[in-house]
Structure to design on (492 residues):
């Protein structure tokens, strides 16, 4: 996400670097680039203008032109203003006692509302809260059945022991258009069921339209007046750009939404909706959808999102994903083996499976500082890991522990068993031995040797199945450097 915006912002910041003298005119030129970048990212024009004006005011106030590193100073100011634009941070949904907490979902048709209901149910289940999901979309064909399938899939596969239930009245779909209060009745009876069966949360999946119209709003207003939801969540499709923001404002004007969930951010390289919707509606962004799986719903953080936009990465998000898949004991055991250069093919396969559960590899690497732009034109085929897994599974237990055992006949057998070629098997073992050696240097060597090992691993594509990453900047991007500079300044 935000690849184009990040690249344009980096260009603007670089224009201030390396100059002998910086004038207010230079800063204005850089801000003109930033304004263009925001407009290309589908940020509303008035928002982009106000943003740049505020940055300019702060830049003048902080004497950026007199700074030794004006590019870094401007990055810091833009970061703070991005946080202010998208914040304040308020991702928590407060639950009432006694329950159930009633959450009403609304949004345009095709925004991902039904899928998001399932993701939100998985989010609460993981937190130990029971959820009843109600199908109140009676106008879209098979909407009730679709939501039921989503809920059943989440109930069967999501983490946590709390139950997830489904409530729907498929027969009421035939009454839609005849009985104005059909959806209202479904919502009312769903809440009654949630109270009777002591669910902690009830999620109401209401109908959407291709366009905001008065009939839609009247129906939603009737639902709101009848069931008195504690939270009204607006689901916004990031890929629809400024249209999403305009529809968000229309929903907020009529319903006074309490929070926004932005979907499909993983598919959109512009991200203007995420930058604009808070400013336009006044409602905080609660969650962002980052994939199709039911667990691809992240609590929104303005600071971390601003860091991603400016190329600072989001290491905290990477750590959180890793903690969900790898226990502390397993991490300690693996760290000890890595430090001694004792990594085996079994260990590698286990770690690779954990990584794959965390998400697409390109998306994970994009969370590292300075890496996102380097991956822009790099194709990382996750299916390649299937071939690697097949090769490792075709090895004997002894071969997985000691790659020195490999000879031509063993390589041919593994290639035949995994449906690959002898060259692929040889390349895997060669790269794996490089990883063993380099990880030992990373864990126990000096800082210089660690940096050299990391550089070699990336440039050579030493991680099996990973391409070399052209254009990697191991000294850190300007954004990363500015963070370090600000940290040192605070420390003093």
């Amino acid at each position: 996400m935000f690849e184009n915006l990040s690249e344009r912002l980096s260009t603007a910041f670089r224009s201030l670097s390396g100059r002998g003298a910086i004038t207010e005119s230079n800063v204005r030129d850089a801000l003109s680039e930033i304004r263009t970048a925001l407009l290309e990212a589908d940020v509303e024009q008035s928002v982009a203008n106000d943003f740049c004006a505020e940055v300019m005011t702060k830049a003048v106030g902080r004497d950026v032109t007199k700074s030794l590193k004006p590019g870094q100073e401007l990055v810091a100011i833009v970061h703070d203003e991005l946080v202010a634009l998208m914040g304040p941070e308020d991702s928590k949904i407060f639950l009432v006692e006694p329950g159930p907490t009633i959450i009403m979902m609304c949004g345009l048709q095709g925004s991902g509302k039904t899928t998001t209901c399932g993701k939100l149910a998985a989010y609460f289940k993981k937190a130990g809260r029971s959820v009843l999901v109600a199908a109140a979309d009676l106008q879209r064909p098979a909407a009730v059945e679709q939501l039921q399938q989503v809920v059943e899939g989440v109930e069967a596969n999501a983490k946590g022991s709390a139950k997830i239930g489904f409530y729907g009245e498929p027969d009421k779909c035939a009454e839609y258009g005849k009985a104005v209060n059909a959806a209202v009745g479904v919502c009312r009876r769903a809440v009654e069921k949630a109270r009777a069966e002591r669910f902690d949360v009830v999620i109401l999946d209401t109908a959407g339209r291709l366009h905001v119209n008065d009939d839609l709003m009247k129906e939603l207003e009737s639902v709101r007046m009848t069931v008195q939801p504690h939270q009204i969540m607006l689901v916004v499709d990031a890929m629809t750009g400024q249209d999403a923001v305009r529809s968000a404002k229309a929903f907020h004007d009529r319903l006074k939404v309490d929070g926004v969930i932005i979907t499909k951010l993983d598919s959109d390289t512009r991200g203007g909706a995420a930058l604009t919707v808070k400013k336009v509606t006044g409602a905080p962004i609660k969650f962002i959808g980052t994939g199709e799986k039911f667990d691809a719903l992240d609590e929104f953080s303005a600071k971390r999102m601003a860091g991603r936009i400016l190329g600072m990465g989001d290491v905290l998000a990477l750590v959180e994903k890793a903690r969900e898949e790898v226990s502390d004991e397993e991490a300690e055991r693996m760290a000890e083996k890595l430090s001694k250069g004792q990594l085996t093919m079994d260990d590698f396969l286990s770690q690779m499976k954990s990584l794959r559960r965390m998400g697409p590899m390109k998306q994970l690497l994009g969370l590292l500082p300075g890496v996102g732009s380097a991956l822009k034109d790099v194709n990382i085929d996750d299916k390649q890991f299937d071939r690697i897994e097949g090769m490792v599974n075709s090895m004997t237990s002894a071969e997985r522990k000691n790659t020195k055992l490999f000879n031509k006949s063993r390589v041919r057998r593994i290639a035949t068993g995994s449906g690959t070629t002898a060259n692929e098997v040889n390349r895997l073992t060669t790269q794996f031995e490089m990883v063993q050696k380099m990880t030992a240097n990373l864990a126990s060597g000096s800082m210089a040797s660690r940096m050299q090992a990391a550089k070699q691993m990336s440039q050579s594509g030493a991680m099996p199945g990973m391409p070399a990453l052209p254009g990697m900047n191991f000294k850190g991007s300007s954004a990363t450097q500015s963070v370090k500079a600000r940290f040192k300044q605070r420390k003093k």
About this structure: Strands lie at 101-107, 131-136, 164-167, 201-206, 231-237, 259-263, 285-289, 297-299. The two ends are 35 Å apart (CA to CA). Residues 422-444 form the longest helix (23 residues). The chain has three domains: 3-86, 101-300, 315-476.
